[in-house]
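Re: How this chain folds, sequence and tokenised backbone to follow
Notation: Tokens come from a learned vocabulary of local backbone shapes, not from coordinates.
Start of record: The labelled sequence and token lines come straight after this line.
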Amino acid sequence: MKKLLTILFLLNISMLSYSQVSFSKFKFKKDSPFGCCPGRKMTDVKFKITSDKAIKYVRVYYYGVNQVGDAVSSDIVGAVNANVEHTKHRMIFFTGPFETNKTYSRWASGTFIYPLEVIAFPYLLEILYMNGEEEKIKLNKENFHIYFPCIKKWIDVNVEDGI
């Protein structure tokens, strides 16, 4: 049993070495300066470059997901036509240069406005290396934990019903 756990651990570490970027934090935090904007959220991120090449840009596309697994938008909450663009994605863009084996923390203020509890859930990762190579990684149930180990479980996001 101990040998099996050791093998699984080593396999997991070898998978992380191919991840290029590993996020230890990717979440919304309350962002309401002086209490003026209730429901306003900031995106708080921490990541480590696990690639063997320096990275120029990192882009993460994500949805705000409510407690029932629906993607929501905050552009026109409470308006007459509140359901017009309820599946709109968000993008957070990081500019390097990012060196290998270093950890970076970033945050973006006012990225999402929604009065109820909502989480940031990524679905696409784009990496542009300093040498001009580009990589697009569509996140799915099998690979999301390699890039986002901070997210404990996969959500099959419903992009049809959210408001």
